[in-house]
Structures are given as structure tokens and as C-alpha cells.
């Protein structure tokens, strides 16, 4: 009974946090359902929304092996950090890049770091590429509609902004931004529905049946690494670390990430990419 009350309290606090952060409708959650055979409480994992598909599978595999249920809170990384600050609850943090992770470390919320896979930005366009986008510079053309992540809410929003700035086209691209989204999943929807002509998305979200992508040259790109770590306010740090180790293991989480099109860390081709 006590565990159920605790779980309910955490859930209510997370909802409250989402409302305060103005994130209603942009976040998501998921629970890996299984009989709790471990005698331990469910783990609460704050996870970037773009990694929902592989992380759900990883959670299921972890629960199968350990009997420990896993509950996910999916949202943009900025939103997740704000929720952690408000609730001071949870066990594991896994954003889509190291920026918000490093911010959480500076605040004392994260106690360690393991590196899992690379996150590679690409340009996503609707099927048929109606605006004839072939490069970053094409996003500055008159009439091109760009969907972009909110820099204050999600890692990819900040990264996209920095990519444009690196190529000296930030102001011109921002003039063509028709919408800013809180999660990368919403950006992908803009592309697949044709509501935008182009957007910066992660390469692993590419679906050849619903979109096309244009690779960004390494000299213009900002490739990132996906981190994961335990939260310092976790009530079950050993169990949280067990989950982190499982996600970062070659036979556990990394194998699943490879199945979903990620390049896992480390890789000699990306030896120059640092956290």
C-alpha cells in the first residue's frame, strides 16, 4: 500500500510539474508493465522524447531480467530538468545530448555519467522534397517553411540554432521558422504531414515511408552523444545504477539502440566527437 501511495504521489507531482512548465500536451509517459518480483519500487526515468521507441524495449528487457518495473517520463530535455528541479524525485536522467545533462550535473542532480550512442542531426523534408532542399543554405530561401525545436525546451532546438549559427545563416533561417516545438516527435509530425518544408531532426528518426533526409556535412554539423546517469536524490541508487549499467551495456541497451538505427558509443568514425 505504501508503495502504491508513493507511486501515485510521484505521478501527481509530475503532472503538476508539467503544468507549471507550460508543457501540457508536449510531454509523454510510459510504464513497462510486469509483475514486480524484485520487492523493489518502480524506477522513474526522465528520458528525452526522441528515444521513446528504443527505451520502451530496453525497459521491457530490464524488467524481464530483474523483475523491477520501469516508469518513463518523456519530454524535451529542458522540460525534464525543470520537472526534476521541482519534484526532487526520480532515479535516472537520459537526455538526447550532454548539454542539459551537464546542467543537471552542475546543479548536483546527477551523480555519474555513462555514454550510450551518437545523436546525429540531419535535415528532414516531406516525401518528394517539395521545396527542393539540398543543403542548410536552402533553409534560408524565401518561402521555405521551417519547423524547429524550442531552444529553451529541448536539446535539438539549441543544437539546430547552433548549427545555423555555425554556418552564418541563423538570422535568415529564423525568418523562415513557422513553428517551434517542444519535442522532436512534434517536429517529425510537421515534416510527415507537410506542415513544414524542412527541419533539423535526429538521423535515427528517419522513416523512408514518410519522409526524406539530407545529411549535413561534418564541417557544418554538431554531432552529440547521448548520456545517462543516476539522480542524486534517488531513493534506490543501487537499483538505478543497475538500470544505467544495463542501458550502457553492449548486450543490453546498446544492442537495442543499434536495432533502431543509432551508432553506439564508442565508434572510431566519430572519435573526434566528445561529450
TrEMBL record:
Keyword Acetylation: no
GO molecular function annotations of the record: metal ion binding; molybdate ion binding
GO BP annotation list: molybdate ion transport
TM annotation in the entry: none
Protein's recorded name: Molybdenum ABC transporter, periplasmic molybdate-binding protein
Keywords: Metal-binding, Signal
Cross-referenced NCBIfam families: modA
Keyword Metal-binding: yes
Amino acid at each position: 500500500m505504501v508503495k502504491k501511495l508513493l507511486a501515485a504521489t510521484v505521478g501527481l507531482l509530475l503532472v503538476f510539474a508539467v503544468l507549471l512548465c507550460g508543457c501540457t500536451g508536449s510531454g509523454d509517459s510510459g510504464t513497462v508493465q510486469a509483475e514486480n518480483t524484485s520487492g523493489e519500487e518502480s524506477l522513474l526515468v526522465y528520458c528525452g522524447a526522441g528515444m521513446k521507441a528504443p527505451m520502451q524495449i530496453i525497459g521491457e528487457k530490464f524488467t524481464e531480467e530483474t523483475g523491477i518495473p520501469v516508469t518513463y517520463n518523456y519530454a524535451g530535455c529542458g522540460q525534464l530538468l525543470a520537472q526534476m528541479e521541482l519534484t526532487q524525485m526520480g532515479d535516472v536522467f537520459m537526455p538526447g545530448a550532454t548539454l542539459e545533462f551537464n546542467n543537471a550535473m552542475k546543479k548536483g542532480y546527477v551523480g555519474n555519467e555513462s555514454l550510450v550512442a551518437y545523436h546525429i542531426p540531419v535535415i528532414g523534408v516531406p516525401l518528394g522534397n517539395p521545396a527542393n532542399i539540398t543543403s542548410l543554405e536552402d533553409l534560408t530561401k524565401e518561402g521555405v517553411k521551417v519547423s524547429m525545436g524550442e531552444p529553451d525546451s529541448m536539446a535539438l532546438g539549441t543544437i539546430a540554432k547552433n548549427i545555423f549559427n555555425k554556418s552564418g545563416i541563423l538570422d535568415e533561417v529564423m525568418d523562415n521558422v513557422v513553428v517551434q516545438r517542444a519535442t522532436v516527435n512534434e517536429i517529425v509530425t510537421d515534416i510527415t504531414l507537410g506542415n513544414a518544408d524542412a527541419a533539423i531532426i535526429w538521423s535515427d528518426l528517419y522513416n523512408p515511408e514518410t519522409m526524406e533526409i539530407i545529411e549535413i556535412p561534418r564541417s557544418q554539423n554538431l554531432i552529440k552523444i547521448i548520456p545517462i546517469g543516476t539522480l542524486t536524490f534517488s531513493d534506490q541508487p543501487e537499483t538505478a545504477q543497475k538500470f544505467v549499467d544495463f542501458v550502457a551495456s553492449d548486450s543490453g541497451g546498446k544492442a537495442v539502440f543499434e536495432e533502431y538505427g543509432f551508432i553506439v558509443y564508442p565508434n572510431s568514425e566519430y572519435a573526434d566527437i566528445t561529450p
